[in-house]
Write a structure and sequence with these properties.
Layout lengths: L6 E4 L4 H4 L6 E4 L2 H7 L8 H12 L1 H17 L8 H14 L8 H4 L1
Parallel strand pairs: 1-2
Helix pairs in contact: 3-4, 4-5
């Protein structure tokens, strides 16, 4: 999918989470369906497959989502309850992301 190549995959494991049937490839149950799906490959857009890959599976996107989870975990702890490790990791994340403490937007300040 990273190269825009359509996928034909059996409906097992995480395949339904990765392959979008009819968009990035075809999900099949039996080998006869897989063979039949090869006739449909030409109707799929390689550009659309690549775009979908970029939306869902690039290292940059996945790293952004991990960082968002870490930010949420840190921000959900009340300031008075922060332990030394939490303060440490908050500083590490801020330094890594060059995050400045959140200031109010003009709309919030009004």
């Amino acid at each position: 999918m990273a190269c825009g190549t359509p996928v034909i995959a059996f409906n097992r494991g995480s395949v339904p989470e990765i392959v979008e049937d009819g968009l990035t490839g075809f999900i099949v149950e039996r080998k006869e369906e897989a063979v039949a799906a090869t006739d449909q490959l030409s109707r799929l857009s390689r550009g659309a497959i690549r775009r979908r890959f970029e939306e869902g599976f690039t290292a940059r996107r996945m790293a952004r989502e991990y960082l968002a989870v870490y930010r949420d975990l840190i921000n959900d702890v009340p300031d008075g309850a922060r332990t030394t490790p939490q303060k440490y990791w908050r500083r590490v994340l801020r330094a890594a992301l060059l995050i400045k403490p959140r200031s109010k937007s003009p709309a919030e300040a009004a």
